[in-house]
Amino acid sequence: MSAIRMSALLITGGRVIDPASGGDGLADVLIRDGRIEAIGTGLVDDEAARLDATGAIVAPGFIDMHVHLREPGIEHAETIETGARAAAAGGFTSICCMPNTVPVNDSATVTSYIVQRAREVACVNVFPIGAITKGSLGDELAAIGSMREAGIVAISDDGRPVMNARVMRRAMELARTFDIPVIDHCEDLNLSAGGDMHEGQVSVRLGLRGIPSASEDIMVARDLLLAELTGARFHVAHLSTLRSVEMVAFAKSRGLKVSCEVTPHHFAITDSELAAYDSNFKMKPPLRCRHDADAVIEGIVNGVVDAIATDHAPHPGSEKMQEFERCPFGITGLETALGLSLSELIHKGRITLMRLVELFTTGPANILKLDRGTLAVGAPADVTIFDLSTEWTYDVQQSFSKSRNSPFNGRHFRGGPLATIVGGKPVWNRFQETNRE
Amino acid sequence: MAEKPKGLLDIESLDRTEIEAILERAHFFQPADNEPFRRLDALRGRTIVNLFFEASTRTRVSFEIAAKRLGADTVSIAAQGSSVSKGESLVDTLNTLVAMRPNAIVMRHAASGAPHFLARHLQIPIINAGDGTHEHPTQALLDARTILDQRPTLEGLRVAIIGDIAHSRVARSNVHLLAKFGVDIVLCGPPSLLPRELAQLAPGVRLSYEMTEAIRDADVIMMLRVQLERQHEAPMSAGEYFHFYGLRLEHLTLAKPNVIVMHPGPINRGRELTSEVADSQRSVILNQVENGIAVRMAVLERILG
């Protein structure tokens, strides 16, 4: 009997927002055996554990389609276990991990390892993304079909983008065959070589070498043309420039199967924050200038942007505590994504809550064709509960991630994740911090 | 948290009064003709570490002499002979040095912002002796001192800075300093070495890609060294560069009659300027070197006195 009682959960009194059905209203959500059983008012179940969500928003579990978990091979920076905990604390119930591990996830063996390891230690769902080329070296195609069978949901050479257009073309053709999207970190490495931050007034002032917006735009343009040529589903990772937003909008208007994600840091902060040469502000694409950040927000508002993703990229302090130009690129982001999105998009009145939830749920779910991101009856019971009013301050020393490289340490937030439920099981709660156990 | 010790990281964050105070004090330290440098014991018992991660002769020696003239003890460390070459991180190197309780660290480093990064993590005054392609504050101060030896005021002057501006920490520091005094600044060089964004570096800055235009009516011409070691792509050929951006005697007729020619050194004769210009009556290149000591004495005294 107790087993049955444990497997049921009744979330009461919350404002349920479900973009998949368009529903938005006060309701209870009943979960049983890891699935959504019912949604409605005045639900009663004497056996179910109860979670009072009065005053909060109950949404489908958030999906972060761009995360670096560093396992296998770079476990001093992050592990599947710690990355998953950080995700849960950020309100994410599913994360997709990029293939730039050691070894690179370019074979079914590595994919299977990640899938298996995640099953053992991760408190959220983990969906691997496979490499486009062997070793992400840009030459020979990886074992895309076998990786697909082993569980990858997309391919990408994130961080080491494929420079050779012909290789990219072949990858898109294969990806189309296996019905997975190609995700590109769009950067012309020749144009951005040696750059450490966005090229503009600030880089010139600081004496740091610049990465021009054009290095992103050129590759977005190339990839859109290849997507048209091949008919592949193509997804722009961490889009950060005005021109790229325009080009993706144009491609969508032409009916191409194109999507894009943006990160919270690219719309919340700009290159002007780099004045202190703090390496926690160093990532790729770099923090752009105001007009790029504004264009990204405009893209979110007008529907060009499909998803918000964090590009959570943990690096240990020993690597980040260096001269700016010697530090690796990347910042952590799982725990601050929702807080930043609420600050910049909701509190400033730019978008509706329905749209915000869509960017974290149906947006990425549709791109990756995941059976997630919905509260439909029968769907996996992944639920994110958040609110708009809880005051909290991000303390990076308390992070669940193994790494501390966040530019948002000490930032004050209004509203953020309150509880995270994966497959019907509460895995994190702001007031109990259940996943510390 | 304790208040951060005062160092000198850049000119941009200094205000005009502070700059004026340093320049005035440097004037006091300048020796009169045929007189030796003043020797003081203002910093007796203080230890200053000169930490040079990049090759330097004049700046390092200048800082050393300045410190000694003030009675301080100095230790100079070149990165090649230190634990840095054994893979120690910058923070660890500095922590080790700080544990020996020096009173200030004078640092040159190839990475822009390296002294700013350290200043955030260490409780010791750091004096920037040149960071990457960012700033070289004492160079701008000694340049201003040198101009003021020739002119009553900086205000209203026209200064042309010519050469590899993009990679020049000397140019950036000079632009920030001169702009605070209302100087009319023209930056000149080939497009690859003169990004457009430099026009917004400070008020009163304009760009020119034409040397004769940049020099016209100038009170001061500052030539910069072509920093081959910092250029990461194919530069203009040396011959072409000298043809379009090298300073020759005939150029000087375009400037004000009493124009002065400056260069932070080391000079490449025949690359940025001709020997005739370097050795001409208009050149104050050696005065700059001499003023370096007086200015650095003023800076050290201000920070440690």
Question: What's a concise summary of this model?
Answer:
The complex is a heterodimer of chains A (437) and B (305). Chain A is an alpha/beta fold and 437 residues long.
List keywords for this structure.
heterodimer; A: 437 residues; alpha/beta; eight-stranded mixed beta sheet; five-stranded parallel beta sheet; 31% helix; disordered N terminus; B: 305 residues; four-stranded parallel beta sheet; 10 helices; 15% strand; globular
Q: What layout of secondary structure does this protein have?
A:
The complex is a heterodimer of chains A (437) and B (305).
Chain A: H1 2-6, E1 8-18, E2 23-32, E3 35-40, E4 49-52, E5 57-60, E6 62-67, H2 80-89, E7 92-97, H3 108-121, E8 125-128, H4 144-150, E9 155-156, H5 165-177, E10 182-184, H6 189-192, E11 197-198, H7 201-206, E12 210-211, H8 213-230, E13 234-236, H9 242-253, E14 258-262, H10 264-268, H11 290-302, E15 307-308, H12 317-320, H13 337-346, H14 353-360, H15 362-368, E16 383-393, E17 412-422, E18 425-429
Parallel strand pairs in A: 1-4, 1-5, 6-7, 7-8, 9-10, 10-13, 11-12, 13-14, 14-15
Antiparallel strand pairs in A: 1-2, 2-3, 5-16, 16-17, 17-18
Chain B: H1 16-29, E1 47-52, H2 58-69, E2 73-78, H3 90-99, E3 104-109, H4 114-121, E4 126-131, H5 137-150, E5 158-162, H6 169-180, E6 184-188, E7 205-208, H7 211-215, E8 220-223, H8 238-245, E9 260-262, H9 275-278, H10 285-304
Parallel strand pairs in B: 1-2, 1-3, 3-4, 5-6, 5-8, 6-7, 8-9
